[in-house]
Specification:
This protein is α/β, with parallel strands linked by helices. The protein has ten helices and eight strands. It folds into two domains: about 160 residues, TPP-binding domain (Rossmann fold), CATH 3.40.50.1220; about 80 residues, SIR2/SIRT2 'Small Domain' (2-Layer Sandwich), CATH 3.30.1600. Strand 2, helix 7 and strand 3 form a beta-alpha-beta unit. Helix 6 packs parallel to helix 10 and helix 8 packs parallel to helix 9. The structure holds 2'-O-acetyl adenosine-5-diphosphoribose (OAD). The site of 2'-O-acetyl adenosine-5-diphosphoribose has 28 residues, from helix 2 and helix 10.
């Protein structure tokens, strides 16, 4: 760790004493793993494409091949990516806090690969595939030259099991995320532009309950002026330092 962070002692004490911690993560958490974010001006995924051209059911109906191929490209990128020190620091934190929940907008599975056990995937997972018509997860399908491949049961198109604009979140997941966000001692918002609802509402709901909210993001967001603490830093640098400052005796492993 080559950079020193000046953490307020009150935050370190609060984290050390916390029984329940909830963390909301967004694409910025995976940026240091080489997975592009969505909204950054030069490098964000949406700087090259309009979201409604690729991430809506209408776009898929109109051009299923283009949408399938875009997700196939992202799936490959995610498979080749590895969790970064920020992911590992969150996995480490889970070992110290009795009830630790990661609520993520990311579809890349990197929190689970780092070792976090309780992860609520608000926007699904790019690693899973489902039937466009039946909405059921499909584990495997026969080799085919069709793009996208047909559902082996009904013949409809297969699609990634992610949430597109205009679609509902997976059943019951937001209720679980809200309960975790309003019933914790400490809430973190990490690497998210706080732009997309309902995920962005979780930090505000936590604040309404009087919960300490910590934001980690190199850029200011709408949440920044409201957060109890705001660190304009990269999560892959700040989180390992925060864990080391909070539990100094603990061996950091991969962090
Ligand atoms: P965005 O691309 O909107 O925001 C990423 C945030 O990460 C930005 O605010 C960056 O400043 C910040 N960031 C960049 N590098 C970082 C780093 N190293 N450490 C910490 N933060 C960093 O991504 P999300 O907020 O995740 O939804 O976007 C939310 C949703 O919008 C996505 O889940 C996706 C998208 O449309 C769907 O596809 C449904």
């Amino acid at each position: 760790m080559d950079r020193k962070f000046d953490f307020p002692p009150v935050l370190i004490d609060k984290l050390r004493a916390a029984r329940r911690v909830t963390v909301l993560t967004g694409a910025g958490t995976s940026a240091e793993s080489g997975v592009p974010t969505f909204r950054e001006a030069q490098t964000g995924l949406w700087s090259k494409f309009r979201p409604e051209d690729l991430a809506t059911p209408e776009a898929f109906r109109q051009n299923p091949r283009m949408v399938w191929e875009w997700y196939a490209w992202r799936r490959e990128l995610v498979e080749q990516a590895a969790p970064n020190p920020g992911h590992y620091a969150l996995a480490r934190t889970e070992t110290f806090v009795p009830s630790f929940t990661v609520v993520t907008q990311n579809v890349d599975g990197l929190h689970q690969r780092a070792g976090n056990k309780k992860v609520l995937e608000l926007h699904g997972s790019i690693t899973r595939t489902k039937c466009f018509t039946e909405n059921t997860v499909v584990e495997s399908w026969p080799e085919t030259s069709s793009v996208p491949p047909p559902c082996p049961k009904c013949g409809s198109h297969l699609r990634p099991d992610v949430v597109w604009f205009g679609e509902a979140l997976p059943d019951g997941i937001f209720e679980r995320a809200l309960a975790a966000s309003t019933g914790c001692d400490l809430f973190f918002s990490i690497g998210t532009s706080s732009f997309v609802y309902p995920a962005a509402s979780l930090a505000h709901e936590a604040l309404r309950q009087g919960i300490t909210v910590v934001e980690i993001n190199p850029q200011a967001t709408d949440l920044t002026p409201k957060a109890t603490f705001s660190f304009q830093s990269r999560s892959g640098e700040l989180l390992p330092a925060l864990v080391a400052a909070t539990w100094p005796a603990a061996h950091m492993g991969e962090c």
